[in-house]
Write a structure and sequence with these properties.
Layout (H helix, E strand, L loop, with lengths): L2 E9 L2 E8 L9 H8 L1 E6 L11 E5 L12 H7 L3 E5 L17 H10 L6 H26 L6 E6 L1 H12 L5 E5 L5 H8 L4 H6 L3 H11 L4 H8 L6 H4 L10
Helix pairs in contact: 3-9, 4-5, 8-9
Length: 251
């Protein structure tokens, strides 16, 4: 896989290195969309005055469609504690999105898929979850090869949807020794209720979902992509993400 960089980056007063990972993946079968979703930035921050071979690593994921820079707040705290940090954009977020507005407005990010006739369904979401797990493993291996971070202590940190994505990698793929999250959890049904305006997830998934889509298209068209997200069958991933009860703690 081609990796470009590094460029110098600074988050919250901490200097780091920014790379670009370029690994094509057929998310949708539409070449230009897949190109946008495949390549992604990775930022690595190392603590000072700690041998790299004894340095734990935390890989952070932001919420759905949110750029990795929104996780900048964890960098100074963790590096001061002697922990390395790696952040990256997940598909449909930041520099890995289709619109690249960096606003984390989900419906704006999903709309180009719908307009191109791409189904934002369970199959696509599961592909995204699986590929994020692959990306986490690649970043872990890259940090070992490039920086010598060979310590087995790996923590996954997620915010909002990033908690679900980290939980999938942790539970289904066995990545990491610790799982940490905020503003989210691995219970997809409860998460969908808080994220989808309480009754909307049930309505979208019910036989009235099509009617809700038609009504929203007329009175609040910007919400139509959100209905598509909720109709996609996110809850079917619950058994996969929740296959194991992840340990939640600190490194």
């Amino acid at each position: 896989m081609p990796i470009y960089g590094p460029d110098v980056i600074n988050f919250e007063g901490v200097n780091g290195h920014r790379y670009w990972f370029d690994e094509p993946f057929p998310y949708t079968g539409v070449a230009d969309i897949d190109e946008r979703l495949s390549g992604f930035p990775v930022a690595v921050f190392l603590p000072q005055n700690r041998p790299v071979e004894h340095t734990p690593l935390v890989i952070g994921l932001q919420g759905m469609c949110a750029p990795y820079g929104w996780n900048a707040f964890i960098v100074p705290t963790l590096t001061q504690m002697g922990i390395a940090v790696a952040l990256f954009d997940t598909p449909l977020s930041g520099e890995r999105s289709l619109v690249r507005s960096f606003t984390a407005v989900v419906e704006n990010e999903i709309r180009p898929l719908i307009e191109r006739g791409v189904c934002f369904d369970t199959k696509l979401i599961l592909q995204i979850f699986r590929q994020i797990a692959v990306d986490i493993a690649r970043i872990r291996d890259f940090c070992c090869e490039r920086y010598g971070i060979s310590d087995s202590r790996l923590g996954l940190f997620g915010v909002s949807m990033g908690v679900l994505q980290a939980a999938y990698a942790f539970s289904a793929d066995g990545l990491g020794e610790r799982l940490l999250g905020t503003i989210g959890h691995a219970n997809l049904q409860s998460f969908a209720k808080s994220w989808g305006y309480l009754i909307l997830p049930e309505l979208a998934a019910s036989p009235f979902g099509g009617l809700a889509e038609v009504i929203l298209e007329r009175v609040k068209p910007e919400m139509k992509p959100l209905v598509k997200v909720l109709q996609s069958g996110l809850t079917q991933l619950a058994q996969i993400v929740g296959r194991a009860q992840p340990y939640q703690g600190t490194i």
